[in-house]
Each structure stands twice: as structure tokens, then as C-alpha cells.
Amino acid sequence: MTDLKSILKLTIMEKRDVALAVLFGFIAGIAGVALLASSGYLISKAALTTQMTTLVVMAACLKLFGFVSALSRYAERLYSHRATFTMLSNLRVSFFERLSPRAPTLFQRYRSGDLLARIVGDVESLQNFLLRVFYPPLVLALVFSSTIFFASFFSAALAFVLFVGFLLTVIVVPALFAWQKRKTASKTRVSRAALSTEATEFLYGFRDLKIYQQLEQKERQLEQLVESYAKDQWNEGRRENYSQSINAFVAMLVSLVVLGLGAYYVAAGELDGLYLAMLVMLSLALFENVTPMAVFPAYYEDSRRAASRLDKVVEEPYQNEGENSLPAGSLGIEVKNVSYTYPEEERPALANVSVRLPSGSKTAIVGPSGSGKSTLMQVLLRTLPVDSGSIFINEENINNLDQQKLWSRINVVLQENHFFFGTIRSNLAIANEEATEEQLKAALEKAELGAFSLSAKVEEKGQNLSGGEKQRLAIARAMLKNEALWLLDEPVSSIDGLTARAIYKRLFEQGKDHTFVVISHDLSDLEQMDQIIVMEQGRIVEIGSYDSLMERQGYFYGMKQIEKSVFA
Ligand SMILES: Nc1ncnc2c1ncn2[C@@H]1O[C@H](COP(=O)(O)OP(=O)(O)OP(=O)(O)O)[C@@H](O)[C@H]1O
């Protein structure tokens, strides 16, 4: 039940609708029992009496019970479904709120298809929690206790039989199936997640699979997953039917016992024969209500697993969210003894890194691939938490900063930037919604994208743009934001040297007093930077101005010599 704690809390928040659903469920159930019981009584009475008034009153009662039962069932459905959909929407909101701060490290732990299966499939599964798990036992307990109380006025023994029937069909049989289901561990959810994960990967990698002629093999793998998912679903359906049949069988047995025992008491003169048909009909109608309990174990287990899979995604602690914001004006950074190792990796991506990036300075970070440059950028952005050490911006520890407020002060261009389906204009507007048409056009010009119209179409993920165009659009976006700190991770790696030089020139003109941190593989034009940080295997191996590093003839000098010999 602990797995269901959070979903229970969200359900109870809808207390008014839940209470009304229980109330109308009870009225519908009891009216149904009254309808059949009174019809049994009417049949017996009609056989024994010729008094028309009694029969007319009884027939009117029958009609009334029929109406009440139908209307209450409608109201029960209305309130229970309303509560369910409100609860589901609250669940989606609260899940997303807990998910979003964990987003930066989420994909290190989950594959996107698995996440999708959880966010969509598991949340959907929880719609059954209120409808099939939470309130049917409550309604049944109320209907059974009132009916048993009523039956006890006619025969204590028959009331006891009904009570035993209640224990068997509402508690014992469902509990047995719930226990068995838990033991056999439903594989359906796992195979659904596996199918979703592989299908997503298949779609992402479709082109590469085709080029490497691996499409058929992957398709076969997917077909196997589909088969196993279908088989698991079929097995689950079979178990559900089995549970339903057993419950209906037990219910029928109880009604037979009521009939047999009732007949015996009538013969023994301990029960008025007038009531026998009524009690048998009452029993039949009462046990008709237990049908939902047959599917209870399946839905209980389903809800428990779905809730625990959702909780697992958001249970990982994430870096404490601070509240402070950065002061207006220029920003300087100090990194002190920062280390970071990716989860499940042995080698640190950053090892004891310390560096000062004074406000208004222009810093380049260079080093071989995999040396930790992008990781340093990510810890500066706080999208990765540091394992040890601290980072200060204007003497404020970034852990004390509100993440949104921190990001609002940084212009970021990453190696991979996302572009939304829409137009150039809509993709630029996410950086500055208030930018005028002129400002948007000016940003495009400065990023050497002047030939593009603002209304030009952008396909999903910017598929219709070249690698260099995407980088220029990302730079234009950062230029529109125009904050005092720029973090640029290989912003011009796909752009030709001449255009790249022109873009840098405009960037540095625009951000004359701003702080720039630029990761670059290209070692040319670094003379214009105030300092160059050289990284290798997660460490800073050299730091200084272009001239001082060249004079020192160390690591950077060596890299320059190699570059010269390669391009000579
Ligand atoms: N998500 C990740 N999970 C595990 N290890 C990672 C992850 N991202 C990077 N690494 C590892 O961390 C190290 C540093 O990677 P990083 O991306 O910071 O290097 P880089 O210097 O930016 O490389 P490049 O110039 O190729 O972009 C590498 O050894 C890399 O394999």
C-alpha cells in the first residue's frame, strides 16, 4: 500500500466527488437489491393473497426501486469519473513538477521510450485506481452490511451465510488472486516498456539502420517484442477471466446455500415461507454487486506497479533548489576544486578543476575530445551537480541560486540545440518574446543568416536546416537574449572559417563588457581571448593568455604545432 500512498493522497483531495460516488454507488446497489427482493416478495404474496391494493403498492415500489437504481448508477458514474479525471490531471501536473528539476540527469538513467511508457502508460493505468480499486470495496461493505442487517430480521442463520459470502467474495478470493498476481509478477508492464523503448530507438535510428542494412534484424527483434507483449496481455486477460469465474461460482454457491437452508427453515417452521423467495432473490441481487471485486486484484496490482514505477523516476534526489538571483550587470565566475564523475563511470570527467573567469573576460577552453570541456560547461549551467567543490558567480554559490533565474542570465549555445516545428521567427522568439521585427532581423544578419525570411518554415528538430544554419540560428537566438554571460560550446564547429570569424567579431562587439566562455576545437584566432584553458582527462593542464602559452612551449604550443603540420 505504501506504493499507492501518493496516488491515494491525490484521490482523497477529490473528497467531495469521491464521497458522492460512494453515496450514489451505495444507493444504486441497495436499490438493486431492494428491487429483486421485493419482486421475490411480490411473487410469494401474489400466490397467497387476492388483495389488489397490496399488489399495486408492491408493483409501484418495484418501479420506484428500478428508477432509483438506474439514476443513482448514473450519478455514481458521473462523480466517480469526474473525480478520476481530475485526479489524473493533478497527477500529471504533480508528476511533471517533480520530473522537471531532474530533467538534466534523467536520460542518464532512463531511455526515452521507457520514460514515455511511464509518463503515458503508467499514468493512464492509474485511472483505474479510484474506479476499480479504491471505492468498490467501500460501496460493497456498505451494501452488504445494510442487507445483512435487513436479512437478520428474518433469519440470523441466513444473514450469517450472507456474511460468510461477503468475506469469501469481497475479501478472501480477491486477496488470494491479488497475492498470486503479485507472486507471478505481471510481465505485461515490463514488456510494454521494452516494446516502447525499442520502438523509439528504431524510429530514431531508422536511417542508420537502413544504411547499415540492419533494418530487417531490428524489425524481427521488434516483432518478437510485440509477440511477447501480446502473449503477456493474453495471459493477463485469462487470469482475469479465471478470477471472475471463481468469484461468480462462489457467489452462486452462497445463493444456493441460502435457498437450501431457507427451505429447511421453512419446512422446520422457523421461517415464514412468504419470505423465502425474497431472501433468495436478495442474495442473488446482492452477489451481483461483487463482479467488480473479481477484477480488483488485477487493477490493484496494476495500480501499485504503475505508481511505484512513476515514483521511482522522481525519487532520486536532485540538487537543492536555491532561491537567490544574480545581481544585474556583469558576471564573473570562480570554480573551486570541482570534481564530477558520471553515474556508473569510474573515470572522473572533471578532476579537481579550479579556475577564475573574471567578469568581462573572454575565455577559450580547448583540449582533446573527451577531456571534460562540455562537462565543465554543464556544471557551470548547473545542469549537472558537482560531486565536490563549489562554483561561485559574483561570489554567490550557484547552489543557492534559483535555476530558472540563473539560466535567465546566461546566453547558451550548446553542441546540439533544439529547434521547434514552426518558423524562424517562432524559434527566435523563445529567446526574447518581446523582440521587434527589426531586432529579429538584425540578429539574423549578425549571425550571417540575413538571407532567411522570418516566416521561413522550420521542420521538427530543424531537419530542413543544415548543420551550420542550425548553429547560426542558435547564435542568433543567444544574441537576442543578450545577457551578460555567454556559454558557447563549439558554436561554429560546422561553419566555414571566414563566416565563423565574422560571427565571432559581431558577438564580441555586441558583448563588449560581457563574460564569454567558448569551447573550441579550432585553435586559430585565439589571440583575441583574454585567457585560454587547456584541458586533458578532466584536468586543467595549462592556463594563460595566447602569448604566454606560446612562450611556455607546453601542451598548447604542442597542439598548435600539430595543427600547423596537419594544415601545412
Ligand atoms: N552522459 C554521459 N555519461 C557518461 N559519461 C559521459 C557522459 N557524457 C560525457 N561522458 C564522458 O565524460 C568525459 C568528458 O566528456 P565531455 O563531453 O565533457 O568531453 P569534451 O571535452 O567536451 O569532448 P568533445 O570535445 O568531444 O565534445 C568523456 O570521457 C565522456 O566519455
From TrEMBL:
<keyword id="KW-0813">Transport</keyword>
<dbReference type="InterPro" id="IPR003593">
    <property type="entry name" value="AAA+_ATPase"/>
</dbReference>
<feature type="transmembrane region" description="Helical">
    <location>
        <begin position="20"/>
        <end position="43"/>
    </location>
</feature>
<dbReference type="InterPro" id="IPR039421">
    <property type="entry name" value="Type_1_exporter"/>
</dbReference>
<feature type="transmembrane region" description="Helical">
    <location>
        <begin position="157"/>
        <end position="179"/>
    </location>
</feature>
<feature type="transmembrane region" description="Helical">
    <location>
        <begin position="55"/>
        <end position="75"/>
    </location>
</feature>
<dbReference type="GO" id="GO:0016887">
    <property type="term" value="F:ATP hydrolysis activity"/>
</dbReference>
<keyword id="KW-0472">Membrane</keyword>
<dbReference type="InterPro" id="IPR003439">
    <property type="entry name" value="ABC_transporter-like_ATP-bd"/>
</dbReference>
<dbReference type="InterPro" id="IPR011527">
    <property type="entry name" value="ABC1_TM_dom"/>
</dbReference>
<dbReference type="InterPro" id="IPR017871">
    <property type="entry name" value="ABC_transporter-like_CS"/>
</dbReference>
<dbReference type="InterPro" id="IPR027417">
    <property type="entry name" value="P-loop_NTPase"/>
</dbReference>
<feature type="transmembrane region" description="Helical">
    <location>
        <begin position="246"/>
        <end position="267"/>
    </location>
</feature>
<protein>
    <submittedName>
        <fullName>ATP-binding cassette subfamily C protein CydC</fullName>
    </submittedName>
</protein>
<keyword id="KW-1133">Transmembrane helix</keyword>
<keyword id="KW-1003">Cell membrane</keyword>
<keyword id="KW-0067">ATP-binding</keyword>
<feature type="domain" description="ABC transporter">
    <location>
        <begin position="333"/>
        <end position="562"/>
    </location>
</feature>
<keyword id="KW-0812">Transmembrane</keyword>
<dbReference type="Pfam" id="PF00005">
    <property type="entry name" value="ABC_tran"/>
</dbReference>
<dbReference type="GO" id="GO:0045454">
    <property type="term" value="P:cell redox homeostasis"/>
</dbReference>
<feature type="domain" description="ABC transmembrane type-1">
    <location>
        <begin position="19"/>
        <end position="291"/>
    </location>
</feature>
<dbReference type="InterPro" id="IPR036640">
    <property type="entry name" value="ABC1_TM_sf"/>
</dbReference>
<keyword id="KW-0547">Nucleotide-binding</keyword>
<dbReference type="Pfam" id="PF00664">
    <property type="entry name" value="ABC_membrane"/>
</dbReference>
<feature type="transmembrane region" description="Helical">
    <location>
        <begin position="133"/>
        <end position="151"/>
    </location>
</feature>
<dbReference type="InterPro" id="IPR014223">
    <property type="entry name" value="ABC_CydC/D"/>
</dbReference>
<dbReference type="GO" id="GO:0015421">
    <property type="term" value="F:ABC-type oligopeptide transporter activity"/>
</dbReference>
<dbReference type="GO" id="GO:0005524">
    <property type="term" value="F:ATP binding"/>
</dbReference>
<feature type="transmembrane region" description="Helical">
    <location>
        <begin position="273"/>
        <end position="300"/>
    </location>
</feature>
<dbReference type="GO" id="GO:0005886">
    <property type="term" value="C:plasma membrane"/>
</dbReference>
<dbReference type="GO" id="GO:0034775">
    <property type="term" value="P:glutathione transmembrane transport"/>
</dbReference>
